[in-house]
Specification:
Number of domains: 1
Strand content: under 5%
Helix content: over 70%
Radius of gyration: 42 Å
Structural class: mainly alpha
Keywords: Coiled coil
CATH class: Mainly Alpha
Order of helices and strands: HH
Largest sheet: none
CATH architecture: Orthogonal Bundle
Number of strands: 0
């Protein structure tokens, strides 16, 4: 009977130890669930960052299209300026021809035509000057716009890179904690 009492006592102490191990296992399961929840949150944050990066990429492509449109407009203005220069050159040649005729007919009172030609020449020169100013302003605006977009993109990418690195470090720490917990659980079972 003494042997059965000792065996029962030993079984009771083994049961207490088993209950304690079960409690530790349950606590470790709870910690594992919390870590898994943190991993899911990190994955959601990473997904949000990828979406943000995608949006920034779309903005970059849209800005490139805007730059192309501005370049086309600049090309059109240059073409218009070149046409005006050509027209002015033709008018100049016509004017020279008319001046020669005027010199021949100076005594016949055709002075009004000369005044009209001179005034048209001044108008054309003013238009050319204005077109040159518009082209310069458009060039400056386009360069400032492109620089601003590039600066925004660089800043956004730097922020995203920093956030991704932080999340990766947190993720690696969580994975290491999970590995440690698994080792502890395996050690407890063995």
């Amino acid at each position: 009977m003494e042997d059965s009492g000792a065996i029962l006592s030993h079984i009771s102490s083994l049961k207490d130890m088993l209950d304690q191990v079960n409690e530790e296992i349950e606590a470790n399961f709870q910690i594992t669930r919390e870590i898994e929840s943190e991993i899911v949150k990190c994955a959601e944050i990473e997904t949000a960052l990828l979406v943000k990066e995608s949006e920034l990429t779309k903005i970059l492509f849209a800005s490139q299209n805007s730059v192309k449109i501005l370049e086309e407009e600049l090309g059109n203005l240059r073409t218009k300026r070149d046409e005006m220069l050509k027209r002015m050159s033709e008018k100049r040649e016509w004017f020279i021809t008319r001046c020669l005729e005027f010199q021949r007919h100076i005594d016949k009172g055709q002075n009004d035509e000369l005044v009209a030609l001179l005034s048209e020449k001044e108008i054309l020169e003013k238009e050319i000057r204005l077109l040159d100013e518009n082209i310069n302003a458009l060039n400056n605006s386009m360069l400032a716009f492109a620089e601003e977009i590039l600066e925004d993109l660089y800043e956004s990418n730097a922020t995203l890179d920093a956030e991704i690195q932080i999340r990766n470090q947190e993720n690696e720490k969580l994975l290491q904690d999970i590995g440690d917990l698994k080792s502890m659980l395996l050690h407890c079972y063995n």
